[in-house]
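Case study 2.
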Amino acid sequence: EEEAMKLLAGVENENLRKHMMAVAAIMERMAEKFGEDRTVWKFAGLLHDIDYGKVGHEEHGLKSAEMLQGKLPDYALHAIRAHNEMTGFMPESRMDFALRASDAASGLIVAAALVMPNKKLEAVRLETLKNKFKDKSFARRVDRGRIMECEKIGMELDEFLLLALEAMKGIADKIGL
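Prediction:
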């Protein structure tokens, strides 16, 4: 936990740190749902982007995994490598797909909160997210295909978006939303 916080503190971009905390919250909820190791899933989410902006896009994820060698199990390192398809690592496991879907969903949810009158997560509902998801001009850079990867691990889109939204609402104060 302490070491993870030090690694997170090394990420200079505040929005990126908030994104990583959001993904961690979603991943921890996913682990609960699937009966997986909550701590490992949370830290995979929290630390998946520690190399972001420090290496080229093709290497993003590889350096993070290298920095976390011996600190997280191999399956978590694989998920971190596979969250960026440019690394050549393909998603295979439940955790791999969960991290990719959580990564993308957090972006959609943040964007949805920011267009609310109060700019807060508390104002975002599942219906809002479903409508924003369908509107391809909204949060254009959010990869809807990755969010849909929740179906590869047995979750319907609505169920996944609700889980992700509730997870992020649980840390709204920490991420300023």
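The mean pLDDT is 97.
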